[in-house]
Amino acid sequence: MSDKFDVIVIGAGPGGYVAAIRAAQLGLKTACVEKYKGKDDKLALGGTCLNVGCIPSKALLDSTWKYHEAKESFAVHGISTGDVNMDVPTMIERKNTIVRNLTGGIAGLFMANKVTTIEGHGKVLANRQVEVTAADGTATVYEAGNIIIAAGSQPIDIPPAPVDQKVIVDSTGALEFQAVPARLGVIGAGVIGLELGSVWARLGAEVTVIEAQDKFLPSIDEQVAKEALKTLTKQGLNIRLGARLTGSEVKGEEVTVTFSDAEGEQQLTFDKLIVAVGRRPETKNLLAADSGVNLDERGFIYVDDHCATSVPGVYAIGDVVRGPMLAHKASEEGIMVAERIAGQLPQVNYDLIPGVIYTHPEIAGVGKTEQQLKAEGVAVNVGVFPFAASGRAMAANDTTGFVKIIADAGSDRVLGVHAIGPSAAELVQQGAIAMEFGSSAEDIGMMVFSHPTLSETVKEAALAVNGAAIHVANRKKR
Questions:
Q1: What digits encode the pLDDT tens for the residues 318-348?
Q2: Side-chain half-sphere of 447: how many Cα atoms within 13 Å?
Q3: Known binder of ligand: residue 365?
Q4: Contact yes or no for 210/124 (Cβ under 8 A)
Q5: CATH code of the domain made up of 361-465
Q6: Quick one: pLDDT at residue 383?
Q7: What value does the mean pLDDT take over residues 123-148?
Q8: Residues annotated as catalytic (active site), given as ranges
Q9: Is 91 annotated as a binding residue?
Q10: Is residue 477 over pLDDT 70?
Q11: pLDDT-based confidence at 2, cuts 50/70/90?
Q12: pLDDT at residue 478 greater than cutoff 60
């Protein structure tokens, strides 16, 4: 038996590393177990999000959007550039540098907070013990007062398109292309598929997105989804809905995919194919048979509202448990669990977890959608304000989309804030703050917003809820 810790965290992603730091801040002797290695074959903290997810994809999205603007939009500002070229390997190396800086930053935070890093694969045993198997196969067992499982998730594989990371890639492989594929296929029109499809479309790839569902982005507000489909199609994404992939064949450096849709069986050939059909919890070899920790019918670790498993002192957070697979949700769960172990009683408000798709325009929402509220029989008032009426958006030549606020028809309490447009994520976050304090639409409408800002769209949408918008014609009450 090796060292005993008050808390052992398995996984150093946005849930795990945050939980470990918070636990250590609260005076608990804490260790964090991580097995992931970076390109240099050294331990890399930060999990999927930092290494091959949220952060690197945003780096590529920002680089390619700047390229797109320079190529397509600078002229309207009077800026002449001549030929604009993208050096893809330089873009990829910049992304890699950002990842290295951030993973090193977490290692520094662990040192500053006296978190012990244990390298290897963590497995939960009975009696709150953790077995860590190093790369050379040697196993060490550690004793813990409490265990926090934050093992994350991995891309879902599908039999019709087996990933080889050469021609058929997953979301990780799609961040490593060294050249722009002329023809790019994307399986899945979700967050990851749309973001990665956008990256390569901006650089000139002919992108086809194959989505099995008939409805585009069914979980987000219908009005926003409709605008998103129109805008992304205009940007060159060929989005094929109701298209079920049935097979793929790699020949040399191209792949032919077969799918069926309303028009029957179809075939398309691509130079690269990205499989982005979702993620599944990383629970393989994570739990000993006698650990006592239970999985639900979908393979997620069963937890209560406070992330406690069926075993006292063992918790699970982030992508291995119910709820949206979002970094910020995992981080908040990590903090909640660390503080509860320390004797505090915080909670996560699962009703107000914002969701964002980082295309351009951004797509974001918090709270309930209009279709959800209608299905629940809740009477609502809705206010919408377009960026086309925003002076700040006009000045930036970025006027696509709108902000939408939904309020209870009786109490005027804000129940949902949704947006598509410039800085949509930041604007929706203002809605999340207001909703956390139980704000009414009238409350937001009475606040003073600086002019000219994109934030004024939030104020105007709130005013529009009750027919009092100033800078757009109000809808007539039916």
A1: 999 999 999 999 999 999 999 999 999 999 9
A2: 18
A3: no
A4: no
A5: 3.30.390.30
A6: 98
A7: 97
A8: 451
A9: no
A10: no
A11: low
A12: no
- The reply, when asked if residue 195 is annotated as ligand binding, is yes
pLDDT digits (tens, 9 = 90+) for 267-314: 999 999 999 999 999 998 999 999 999 999 999 999 999 999 999 999
Give the mean pLDDT of the chain.
97
Residue 58 marked in a binding site: yes
Across the range 170-195, mean pLDDT stands at 97
How many CA atoms are closer than 13 Å to the CA of 263, on its beta-carbon side?
A: 7
Residue 1 has pLDDT above 70, yes or no: no
Q: Which CATH number fits domain 4-155+280-350: 3.40.50.720, 3.50.50.60, 3.20.20.450, 3.30.230.10?
A: 3.50.50.60
DSSP assignment of 177-224: -SS--SEEEEE--SHHHHHHHHHHHHTT-EEEEE-SSSSSSTTS-HHH
Tokens 């990829």 belong to 92
Please give the torsion angle defined by the CA atoms of residues 183, 187, 193 and 197, in that order, rounded to the nearest 10 degrees: 10
Helices (H) and strands (E) in the chain, counts: 12, 22
Q: Is residue 354 a contact partner of residue 364, using CB atoms and an 8 Å limit?
A: yes
Known binder of ligand: residue 313?
A: no
Q: What is the pLDDT of residue 3?
A: 80
- Fold type of domain 168-277: FAD/NAD(P)-binding domain (3.50.50)
Report the C-alpha gap between 104 and 311 in whole angstroms. Answer: 34
Give CA–CA dist 319/300, Å, rounded: 8
Q: Is 191 marked as a binding-site residue?
A: yes
The pLDDT confidence band at residue 245, using thresholds 50, 70 and 90, is very high
All structural domains of the chain with their residue ranges = 4-155+280-350, 168-277, 361-465
Place of tokens 């490593």: 176
Domain 168-277 and domain 361-465, same fold? Reply is no
Distance spanning both ends of the chain, measured CA to CA? 72
The model carries a pTM of 0.97
Contact 150, 19 (CB under 8 A): yes
State both tokens at 64: 């390619």
Kindly give, in sequence order, each residue whose CB lies less than 8 Å from that of residue 78, ignoring residues fewer than 6 positions away.
none
| Strand residues in 38-120 grouped as ranges (E) | 116-119
Q: 78 among the known binding-site residues?
A: no
Give the pLDDT confidence of 409-419 residue by residue, as tens digits.
999 999 999 99
CA–CA separation, 124 and 220 (whole Å): 36
Other C-beta atoms within 10 Å of 68: how many? 18
Q: pLDDT band for position 39 (50/70/90)?
A: confident
The pLDDT confidence band at residue 476, using thresholds 50, 70 and 90, is confident
Q: Consult the annotation and say whether 192 binds a ligand.
A: yes
Q: Please, where are the H alpha helices in 342-416? A: 370-375, 391-395
